[in-house]
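[job 0412] stage=fold_complex status=start
inputs:
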Amino acid sequence: MHTQLRFGAAILVLATAQAGYADEGMWTFDNFPKERVKKAYGFEPSGAWLDQVRLGSARIAGGCSASFVSAAGLVMTNHHCAHSCIQQLSTKDKDIVKAGFYAATPEAEVRCPELEINQLVAMADVTAQVNAATKGKEGAAYAEAQKAATARIEKECQASDALRCDVVSLYGGGQYHLYRYQRYQDVRLVFAPELAIAFFGGDPDNFMFPRYDLDVSFLRVYQGDKPAKLEHYFKWSAAGAKEGELTFVSGHPGGTDRQLTAAELEYERDVALPERLLTLAQLRGLLTQFQERGAEERRIATHDLFGVENGYKALRGRWSALLDKAFFASKLAEDNALRSQVAKDPARQQKYGAAWEQLAKAVAEQKKYRLQLRYVASGAGFSSKLFAHARTLVQGTEELTRPNDKRFEEYRDTDLPQLQQRLFSKAPIYPGLEVEKLTFSLTKLREELGADDAFVKKVLGAESPRELATRLVQGSKLADPELRKKLWQGGKAAVVADKDPMLELARLVDADSRLWRKKWEEEIEPVQKKAAEQIAKARFEVLGTSHYPDATSTLRLSYGAVVGYEENGKKIKPFTTFAGAFERETGRDPFALPASWLKAKPNLDLGTPFNFCSSNDIIGGNSGSPVINKNAEIVGLIFDGNLQSLGGEYGFDASVNRAVAVHSQALLLALDKIYGAQRLVTELRPGK
Amino acid sequence: MHTQLRFGAAILVLATAQAGYADEGMWTFDNFPKERVKKAYGFEPSGAWLDQVRLGSARIAGGCSASFVSAAGLVMTNHHCAHSCIQQLSTKDKDIVKAGFYAATPEAEVRCPELEINQLVAMADVTAQVNAATKGKEGAAYAEAQKAATARIEKECQASDALRCDVVSLYGGGQYHLYRYQRYQDVRLVFAPELAIAFFGGDPDNFMFPRYDLDVSFLRVYQGDKPAKLEHYFKWSAAGAKEGELTFVSGHPGGTDRQLTAAELEYERDVALPERLLTLAQLRGLLTQFQERGAEERRIATHDLFGVENGYKALRGRWSALLDKAFFASKLAEDNALRSQVAKDPARQQKYGAAWEQLAKAVAEQKKYRLQLRYVASGAGFSSKLFAHARTLVQGTEELTRPNDKRFEEYRDTDLPQLQQRLFSKAPIYPGLEVEKLTFSLTKLREELGADDAFVKKVLGAESPRELATRLVQGSKLADPELRKKLWQGGKAAVVADKDPMLELARLVDADSRLWRKKWEEEIEPVQKKAAEQIAKARFEVLGTSHYPDATSTLRLSYGAVVGYEENGKKIKPFTTFAGAFERETGRDPFALPASWLKAKPNLDLGTPFNFCSSNDIIGGNSGSPVINKNAEIVGLIFDGNLQSLGGEYGFDASVNRAVAVHSQALLLALDKIYGAQRLVTELRPGK
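[job 0412] stage=fold_complex status=done
writing structure:
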């Protein structure tokens, strides 16, 4: 533990003198630092407490968190986590993103076409099994052995499609665990406020605090066409979060990079982040202008634009952290410190010393081939829902002719239920937007690989990007989910026989795509994985296991307190109130409160807390996480972090990094007095 | 000279072993390295030769180069240098950007609304006068003294509006020279090809070689409504450029940063370049999509989009150079070497040693206030032609109430003719595009300074950026040049009395704008200037005067040879031919040859050289420069550099940095056989 603090100390150069809440860490439930919490806050979570919290927590497959909040399958998450569903359920004439949605009766709840919710029911350490399989292997052989071992373990675990079994890598490959989830695919929309209040302040206020957002939606998981009956769920706190109170956040942070080596950090700073940002910036300009074509274009591009602007701001914040010379130097110092610790001990040096150099070489390889990996293998050159379906049909029906452990990961048995849910989804596809996005990405493909690149010539022929995109989108029949289902069920023979132009494109690029994916999976990734594994082992030897692994979309628990911070010499209080929202309102998007709020204003206690911030260590993917008190009661709903939290990707600065949440009182007040959602209020607080 | 090579040597780490043409340098005409050229190529330019070349050279005010090519005032430059004029002379129904233009008779030549052409007629060293004025002064006093001295020198020089007198700073302030130009404001369009061939290959081929562009236009300068009679102009070479031949390029490179200190280079790499690139990327997406609204929107945004894409690609190349670790280290090594040379000598250290630290501090200040300087003082938050006119009217009529030497630089007497030409221009202003650009920049202003910034609140009030932009553009009458002229001539009283909404905005932001400009001009810039001056003096002491100053839009001469290079192990030949253009054609923009070319194909000798590359050291601003042989005859027309030339901003890599030009034979062949422009052919080659 002392060693951890020593290694972590370098980060604190960023912290101001008032730093006192070093509540760092996104901890796994099986290694939660109970004693540390007890020492700091006088409360020690029991094993039963941790089990209850884990089982009350949920993941929205694809990148958000949520919680179960009633015995009848009610799920609470953010509006922005259900935004895609809300948009998919909207039409030109009935835009529930704009108008909001409330199912006043159980019958009015509507199924989301593509949402899957997971509940972590069991975890098991399978490190020994995976390590035994890969022992002594390198490169492609290492990759193949690891793939086979994890596929086998997952397959053995998954008794039915109602389960989802993932072997997850923790501590950069230092440990492998088998996570078993209950899988819910019948997820229905119960409540969503208007986007104008869910995302009040829009992009300007995103990642800012103070804040005034009702970023909530309620969903319900069903089983056998009936609301699922849940044993574990969170109850509501009467008072909600109070200043200074100990808070826990249980959720699925998507990813952090706190243990990167110098070579990886430089690649992030100088190559990966700027390239992604430049692409996002251009796409942002494109979508903003596309929306000006008309009301319907505005509506259908809203979710895409949110995603792009959110990503842009998040990555810019992350990049700024790496461009901070002192912070970057502190990260290099951490890496160097571990490396020197290893070098000091000849036995360790013998075992682990070469890993850094190997990793640096693999990163150089990645840099060299990154454009092909991105534009060809990952399909960034073909940004289109129709193309994504076409690729799934072409690649998937081919992959399914192979045994489970020889397939690309996304076509393994354990992933098929989710894949099919998406492939068969009835969510609308908008040809106009498809053409623009495909034109954009084909143009980028040509720009980045060059007009004279053989692959680019193969794809475009004599056509311009726009001409090709228009021909494919207009000619393709794949917008029809029944057709996609028929082709999928018909398997490879059916797909090969179909001359749909988007399928033709997917076929045309398949060989190159596989070639570059092979390059990545057999030559670059295994070297990186193995080296990271070595470094992780070295870290265990030096630091013990009392540290937390980087986030990997797996369930984590963080602890902290409701506490403000200082910014440019100004104290920021941890709470905002309803009054503040009305003060901030200008009547113009994104600072326009919805009519429902203006109407209800006289009935509201404007002093009610609205949003608050806490020192919990969270990151993207934590959106929708419950904030709970020591009684495991809901006191808030995470929906954001402040600007200063964005550098949390690489290191936690306890003095200013804050999680941002909707207060539980605000949620109830809005449901009750603004939306008249009595059915929900009663369900959340039965007997009150 | 040896010392120069030693300092320059670090750059050569980038050069391959075959490097042999170290033809580095954008030399002033009064310090041209004649002996160096003689040694390398066996030809020594005489003083008369240099005078003739200087007087045959022209500058297009605002950022391009050109040459005089007949006794009757004919001027040759690039199509992209006259693009703004060609677009301004186009209408919805007659798009000469697309169709091209040829004045078959003298009467058909059309005046460009905003072009000014300058010819450098005299140069004088005024370093002593400027230094005497600023001696012993610091900060605001230094800035004021320098401003007063240069304004006085310019004013004394400028006998009439037909002259333009600029005191230019060379060697980063190590020298000041008075440049006197003949000013031509009656500039008429004579010939322009179709954009499709002027910019064949479009953005994908921009900054690439091999290349196939006829990037030329011909203009004519008039005096007293008649073609100007010129004593000095370039004659045409019969054969044009040949492989290995010595070539000179005479032109106005806009700016290089080859002598930056470590602090400045880091600021460029980590702050200035990425921020500009991100903004350009977003604007690029916006304009691309704006063009999809319809044919007219496509037409009116063509020039803007070219500017944005050209800037984006150029800056990305420049940034890549700085992100190259070895190159960046070599630049730091150069800076360190000079610094150590200074430190070694106590007297020098006493005089110059503190400059680096002072410069670093001033750069830190610039970083701190950069958003205000950019968005408020420079007006980047208000990107609109109408706003630019409004600001000129509001600021200019105020400034003109002050004595010449107390005004902002752009309102000095010597600058007024050009300012008035632009202010009174009849070029059309397109309200639709104005709204989009102003909305974009107001949104960026809010994004970068924050929604809660006092200035942002003052500007936007309760309005959204789009609402404000629409109201201002629709409500303003400033699109009318007669009104602008009337207001300007009415002076401050007339402008103050006018309630045009765009004038109101210019007034609203004027105080803040002046405040930040003052911060820059009195607190930051003088420190940077003075420190740079000290470092420049130190460099003179250490290196002598046998080096060239960074480019500053002043006339320079570079020498080199027609020579290919190696790229990814492949030899690139220095010439392309007409045949290559027809091979590259796909029939789709940007690889569609115009109908005139397809029609003329049977009459063309397809083996005729089209474009070529040479080792001349050039940079942005050199566009339109003549390439001449030792007889001072035209052998080509510069229009670009290769990708590898973009890092030339910071250092010249002789092995791969290449200038790209249209071959003189190609120009004649196209005029003759494709465009039937016999009048021009005869004028260029009288008696042939």
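[job 0412] summary: The two ends of chain B are 45 Å apart (CA to CA).
[job 0412] exit 0
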